[in-house]
## 1
Amino acid sequence: MSANPSWNPEQYLRFADERLRPAIDLIARIEHPGPGRVVDLGCGAGNALPLLAARFPGAEIRGIDGSAAMLAKAEAAGFPTEQADIASWSPAAPVDVIFTNAALHWLPDHAALFSRLLGALAPGGALAVQMPAMHAAPLRALQDELAASPAWSDRLAGIRSAPPILGAGDYYDLLRPRVARLELWFTEYVHQLKGPDPVVQWAMGTSLRPYLDALPEAARPDFFQDYADKLRPHYPVQADGTVLLPFRRLFILASR
């Protein structure tokens, strides 16, 4: 991982409904006749755990995440959790379904990562993945541009957010020879956000964290303001005060 951001559950959950929509869509597409063990890898605050339990009644549902603050929220939902680095996590026994929503894009070397996750599946198991495909969008690209600007480069040298994910064809070539069934698709959600600078508020819950964590507390408001000024022309306010955030995501379903 290029950064180890500190996760703020309250900030992340500020847009809980919008962040949960891709998880709902992915869970609905998972096909397994009767999994016994289901893992939510990078479960965050645990929003998807009840959805997985409803989709697979009778299965053991477990959340895995590296953030103690996020897991504290997840445990409140009543599901077993495990604190672990998802970059190196390995189950004690094969898993029937590995579900991971907006987590793997933080990790490097996807060739090795996806190979390891497929190896953790039981025969007939399914790997269900959703990752943001937003690296070229203003939301993400302007973070790197700002960090490299003269005003911030001294303090943010070498700091980056999540790296770009691979192309769909790369994931196809990586996974197709190893699985019985593979689905790949993109969905672009158009989120309708409210409030002052809501796209900045969205980014503060995820991709902006590495930059904010690297700055002293006193400098963060200025960085926040500079980022907001750069973003506004790309995400204008609609006539009713809404700001639209187009957000593209890659979905992968691979079954052994």
Note: The mean pLDDT is 92.
## 2
Amino acid sequence: MSRRNLLIGGALALAWVIGAPRLIRLTQDEFPFEDMPGLPGFRSLGFGGGGANIALLGIGEGEAPGPNPLGSNPCAAIFGDGDDRLPVAVFTDYFCPYCPEVSELVRRLDRAGEVRAVWREWPVLGPRSEAMARVALAAAAQGAHDAAHAYLMRNALRPGPAALAEFAERFGLDAGLLARDAQSGEVQARIEATRALAKRLGLPGTPGLAIGRTLTAGRMPEARLRRLIELERERPACTA
């Protein structure tokens, strides 16, 4: 072997000795997961440092704790029944600036059969957010949640009956039933249940994500979400 090749080989070996621990450390620190207190098997990611990409930090501070909304089966409480795809629950607000991007990404993965999307309407940004969440849930009662959700993520719904009638016509819905359901106790109960669930899970704001038993919040680039999905699939399934 020539002296030149020996020098190159030595340099590469030295680079590996220096660089390998850093590569290993970077792999280990890829996602700094933390165990969730009181939720065996659940872990959180990104609750502390992602404030710039989360809408409304610190919600619910100082409130008295209510009944545990997770019951004895957290997976059932978060995701409900469904098929055997990895469930991904998305906690969204229609005025959250980061929710449309995350919502569309999860919708695309759901349509491709890669995950099972579970939508949690979580209006944290005021009365108009709640009004739109109510309309989305009322549309769900007529089987049109996916289309209504996608539309409302990109378009604000004007207040008043005329705008609601136009919305109903756009999606072929019964306008009167839509208006009644939006103000129903059942819709109110679903919103309150999501609020309690988000608080129990410690979500700091929207968009919030439960990827199986991994919880995170904030803007989520596709490569990062796909990697989290890949890692979560290696763990025991979170099923009802």
Note: The mean pLDDT is 83.
